[in-house]
């Protein structure tokens, strides 16, 4: 069956703000193909390791090297929970505990500093929820605190998520003065009927104003989030959304298919969605329009002008390291001393997090990634990218010899799903469209009885 596009759940896998355990990486959050970048349940990837498999992999090891480091910061409140959202978000009360939460975030970071030492920080992403509900003073205090604790790169990318319905005139200028140098604006659509169906608090005019305000505020680098495959959406309407977004001059566009995720209102009460074949044609036409207008697709759901790919998300997809602070935030850290990759996550509920941040009780859990899971985790991230990966990077990021990918990798090459040139591996066009077929090959060993 042909699958269409990237899902919201896949992005979740990458921000790790809501997943229960990143054995998938859950960010996001757990599927595999263009339609669902991770189509197998986390329980599969986290299944028991077969007898003697771990020892066999240990005999075929390379040395882990420290990858680039990023920081994810989760602010969990929003004005209203959208019916499709399965992120760790909570409806805000009239008064947000901004000062207390900023203190909690910095205490949380203090607790994690020993994990990274003096490593250089390449990017920061402030996500949610709706981080733009916080005032610029709070964001400035947060960023000053982060810079005082971590060795930030001179060209560090600092992204803040914002929703059009939460940004009044002048707020973007204040965020920029606070140190934010990239915005990601959750437009989703410019069509008022579709916005109402999605439960969004803004309308099309507010979405246009927010994008224009970003440019006026001096942001030369900003992203617009769009969704397609919306309830009763026609192909022409999806193309109009993309055309409108392009006209606003973003440097980056994220284009996701609406999917009905567990534990959401839409999953309990499914809306009427376009047929799969319609969604596929919708995606292909939107991709063609974006390419025609100079937005190169570099990842399943990401399109950018030259030189404007998202550094933070690239680090996720290249299997880099990241700290995660905030309620429900997840981190992935390479432990060179123990030659292991660890994942850790914080408690999810904001009240519990506020009460425990900076103490061991704030840790929701931690686990080393089994060596048997590393090939799948590496591939499900790297193969989302058009660029694929260099063979030498596999050993540096996993600590395993490249040979552990054989003979499955060669089998995928023979089937026309992967191509290998000059020590570089990436998906063919067919492989990218059917990424789940590739990844399933590398699940079987870890999931066998």
Q: What secondary-structure arrangement, pairings included, does this model have?
A:
Elements (H helix, E strand, L loop, with lengths): L7 H8 L26 H4 L7 H6 L10 E7 L1 E2 L11 E2 L6 H15 L7 E9 L7 H14 L1 E12 L8 H8 L3 E7 L3 H6 L6 H13 L5 E7 L6 H13 L4 E6 L7 H4 L7 H17 L3 E4 L2 E3 L6 H7 L3 E6 L3 E6 L4 E7 L3 H7 L6 E6 L5 H9 L6 E2 H8 L9 H7 L3 E4 L2 E4 L1 H5 L1 H13 L2
Parallel strand pairs: 1-4, 1-11, 2-3, 4-5, 5-6, 6-7, 7-8
Antiparallel strand pairs: 8-10, 9-10, 12-13, 13-14, 15-17, 16-17
Could you estimate the helical fraction of the residues in percent?
25-40%
Q: What is the number of helices?
A: 18
Provide mean pLDDT, rounded.
86
Largest sheet: 9 strands, mixed
Task: Describe this protein with a few key phrases.
single chain, 449 residues, alpha/beta, TIM Barrel, 2 domains, 9-stranded mixed β-sheet, 3-stranded antiparallel β-sheet, 18 helices, 17 strands, 21% strand, disordered N terminus
Can you give me a brief rundown of this structure?
This protein is an alpha/beta fold and 449 residues long. It has two domains: 8-59 and 372-447, no CATH class; 69-314, Aldolase class I (TIM Barrel), CATH 3.20.20. It is built from 18 helices and 17 strands.
What features would you describe in this structure?
With 449 residues, this protein is of the alpha/beta class. It has two domains: 8-59 and 372-447, no CATH class; 69-314, TIM Barrel. 37% of the residues lie in helices and 21% in strands. It is built from 18 helices and 17 strands. It is globular. The model is unreliable at 1-55 (pLDDT under 50).
């Amino acid at each position: 069956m042909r699958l269409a596009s990237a899902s919201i759940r896949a992005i979740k896998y990458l921000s790790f703000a809501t997943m229960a355990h990143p054995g998938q990486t859950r960010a996001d959050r757990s599927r595999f193909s263009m339609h669902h970048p991770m189509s197998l349940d986390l329980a599969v990837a986290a299944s028991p390791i077969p007898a003697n498999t771990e020892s066999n992999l240990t005999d075929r090891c390379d040395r882990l090297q420290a990858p680039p480091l990023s920081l994810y910061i989760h602010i969990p409140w929003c004005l209203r929970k959208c019916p499709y959202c399965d992120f760790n978000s909570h409806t805000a009360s009239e008064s947000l505990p901004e000062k207390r939460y900023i203190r909690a975030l910095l205490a949380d970071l203090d607790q994690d500093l020993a994990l990274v030492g003096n490593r250089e920080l390449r990017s920061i992403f402030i996500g949610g929820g709706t981080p733009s509900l916080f005032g610029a003073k709070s964001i400035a205090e947060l960023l000053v605190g982060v810079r005082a604790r971590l060795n930030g790169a001179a060209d560090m990318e600092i992204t803040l998520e914002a929703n059009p319905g939460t940004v009044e005139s002048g707020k973007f200028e204040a965020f920029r003065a606070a140190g934010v140098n990239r915005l990601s604006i959750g437009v989703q659509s410019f069509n008022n009927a579709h916005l109402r169906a999605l439960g969004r608090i803004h309308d099309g005019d507010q979405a246009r104003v927010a994008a224009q305000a970003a440019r006026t505020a001096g942001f030369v680098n900003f992203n617009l989030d769009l969704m397609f495959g919306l309830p009763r959406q026609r192909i022409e309407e999806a193309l109009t959304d993309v055309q409108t977004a392009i006209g606003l001059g973003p440097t980056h566009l994220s284009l996701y298919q609406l999917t009905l995720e567990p534990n959401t209102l839409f999953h309990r009460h499914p809306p009427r969605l376009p047929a799969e074949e319609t969604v596929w044609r919708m995606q292909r036409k939107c991709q063609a329009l974006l390419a025609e207008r100079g937005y190169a697709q570099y990842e399943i759901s990401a399109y950018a002008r030259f030189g404007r790919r998202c550094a933070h998300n690239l680090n996720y997809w290249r299997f880099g390291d990241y700290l995660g602070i905030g309620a429900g935030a997840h981190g992935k850290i390479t432990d060179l001393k123990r030659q292991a990759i660890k994942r850790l996550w914080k408690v999810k509920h904001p009240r519990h997090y506020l009460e425990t941040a900076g103490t061991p009780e704030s840790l929701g859990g931690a686990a080393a990634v089994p060596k048997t899971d590393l090939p799948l985790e590496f591939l499900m991230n790297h193969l989302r990218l058009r660029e694929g990966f260099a063979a030498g990077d596999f050993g540096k990021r996993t600590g395993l010899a490249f040979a552990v990918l054989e003979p499955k990798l060669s089998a995928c090459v023979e089937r026309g799903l992967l191509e290998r040139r000059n020590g570089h591996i990436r998906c063919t066009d067919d492989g990218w469209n059917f990424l789940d077929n590739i990844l399933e090959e590398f699940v079987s060993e870890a999931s066998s009885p």
